[in-house]
Structures are given as structure tokens and as C-alpha cells.
Amino acid sequence: MTEEKGERIAKRLARAGLCSRRDAERWIAAGRVVVNGSKLDSPACVVTASDMVVVDGQPLGEPERTRLWRYHKPSGLVTTHRDPEGRPTVFDKLPEGMSRVVSVGRLDLNSEGLLLLTNDGELARKLELPSNNWVRRYRVRVHGEVKPDALARLEHGLTVEGVAYGAITASLDRQQGANAWLTVSLREGKNREIRRVMEFLGWPVTRLIRIAYGPFQLGTLDEGAVEEVPGKVMREQMGEGKPVLHAKPEAKPGGEREKDQRVAARARKHKLADDKRTAEARKQAKPYYAADGTKTEATPRAKPHATRRRTP
Fold it and tell me: Was domain 68-237 assigned CATH 3.30.2350.10?
């Protein structure tokens, strides 16, 4: 007879999509979890499929298949299931009939952009692990005149009010009067990290949009919209069966992209002009006779493109 495989109760609750494992331990300490008629007071409990688990008076159902969604979080929502101040939450605004989900990390009240949601608390924990080394990328608007050399300091890390922050990659996209838009990338993601670091540098953040979390992109997802990540894509990112796809390389700031495009356009224009001059010269070329008497077309040599203005 095969022995039934068990798992810790906190992991079982997380896989059912009720909460994270950390939250499950708090629920157990609060006396909200009952196993086979006995209220648990410690998470040191292993359960199997045959055990009866009850949470808040409701039997725990079978775990659903693991699913993952991209959500475009609007500003003004808190990332929590219950807010003691009664503010609207992310989970209040999700479509009716959607599975109970937990978030992968958080975005604070005034932040917006990409927030990953899953019905599997264990998956949420895996996606949050620093060992993934995933880049979180943001578009950030700050108030003040940004100096590129000051941004360069962030690449070596910074300590603000006793909190050490790791390397941050930040570039200036454009300065618009008293405001500036930045692209900011980091791998750590401590609480309110970008806001605190920018405030320390003298640039208060007035808008913060997360546009990527590792290989998952916000893309053109409308504000407030939810879109499920295909199961195949999700499994590939977690390294199940196929090599993990890496995140797209860091996008260049808008100013650098525009400069590269202008340089490429000029190069194409010059090449077309040179080709045209070569073709015209070939039409006008006169034949000549070699020493052996054979007739040969002259090889035209186009005039070089003028790069200097003629002085008057």
C-alpha cells in the first residue's frame, strides 16, 4: 500500500489560493484553521488529501490548477484583501467570478502599472524570491531638474535613513520644465524604495508606473484590465519542462532611442544619395580600349558626399 504524501498546512492553504504561507501562519495563530475537528495553534502540522481542513468555518476545497494573471493596477487602490482604513483595494475591483487570488509583491496606494496575480500562494512566493534575479522596471515622473551624474550614483547602491538599497539603474528620458521622466530598473524592490531614494536625491516622485516584472510586461493592457498568462508561457518562465525565457533586454531611454534613429536615418539617406550618383556616373561613362584591343566600360567613381560647406 502506497503511503499518502503530505504537506505542511501553510503550504496547503497557499496552494488553495487563500493566502501566502506567511499569512497562513498568522491565520493559524489566530485560531482560524481547523484540521479534523481540532483547532490548530501551530503551523507545524502535515496534512494529506484525506484530512478535513476548515478555514473560517468553510471546508477547504481541492487546489485549482495554477493560474497567473497580469493586472494593470490603477492609482488609488491598496494591495491588500482587507484594509483597516476602509480604502478600496485591488481585489475589490477585480471582475466578478474570478478565482480568489493573491498578489505577487505589492504596489503602494499611489503607484500604478503591472501587478501579477495568482491563485497559488506558493507560486506567488516563488515569483517574489530575490534568487530569480528578475528586473522590475518602472517609468517614474519626478519634480525637479535631474542631473545625469546624480543618477549614476545609484548604480553603486545607496543608504537612506539607515536602510541600504542595492544597485539601481536609472536614466533620464526627458526633462519637461520642472518635471522629468525617468526609466528606473531594480532587482530588490524594498518597500517604497524608488520614492525614498528619489526623495533623498531631492526629486519627489509624482507618478510611478511599473511596466515590467521580470519577463512579464505591462504592454498595452488597459488600466484596470486583467489578462491571464497562458499556462505554457507561465510554465516556461518557471523552468518547468523547457528553458526559462529571459526578460527582454533593458530598453534604451527615449532620448537615446531617438538619437539612434536619427543617425540611422541619416546613414540611409547618404547611402541612397551615393547609389544614385554612382548610377548616374555609370550612364555617362565612356568606353575605352585596353592594350589588347578589347573594349571595356569605364568603372565610374562617384564623387564623395560633400560634408563641408563652401566658404563665401
Answer: yes
